[in-house]
Amino acid sequence: MESAQRFSLFRYAAPNMFYPLAGRLAPMFAVAAVVLALVGLYMGFFVAPTDAVQGEVYRVIFIHVPAAWMSMFIYLVMALWSGVGVVFNTRLSAMMAQALAPTGAMFCFVALWTGALWGRPTWGAYWVWDARLTSQLLLLFLYFGFMALTAAIEDPRRADRAGAILALVGAVNVPIIYFSVTWWNTLHQGASVSLTKAPSMATTMLWAMLIMALASWAYTIAVVLWRVRGLILERERHTEWVAAELDAAEARA
Prior knowledge:
Distance between the termini: 42 Å
Structural class: mainly alpha
Order of helices and strands: HHHHHHHHH
Number of helices: 9
Mean pLDDT: 87
Largest sheet: none
Shape: globular
Helix content: over 70%
Number of domains: 1
Radius of gyration: 21 Å
């Protein structure tokens, strides 16, 4: 009984079992991402009221804030998968970490870019060496470093371990980003949404931002699942099940 439960729990850790599951789930999350993004953008740009202090320029938060949240969260998930791969020596864990990195880097870049667009009218400059901005820029370099390192090492096992070490060490930067506005005197405003106090924005603004965050989640899951399927095929290309999968795809075409 115990062995059967263990098999049921860990069966999708095998690439050949996870591959079809990812193929079924990815389209559903993609549809959810499109619907949520349309609703969130409509609420943020057409329903939410104009800010009394910043005017219309504040609406960049409906893209900037979810992107910043996702850039940090994806890195932590990437580090978690890397740690699982190191501890349990699972092939799928390293592939999941590598599938997450490009999407995390994209969100990190979007957060920096939209932050610069927001900063020009509010701070008078596109960029300042603020603690929050600098640590966010370091996060982008960590994403680039992870991708470059894993791509530069030919042996997959060595590449997985080297990338895992970088991901785990770099995870220290995430709490620095989050708490930078508390630990240091910075230009960047504090969190608008907190678990310990009431939100400092109108309800419509809050809902629009949360819906956009859910859209970002759904997008991330869909893209990562599609990307990891490609990585699985590449890493497992010499196995019989991949050959059978490719033959079945050719037959369907």
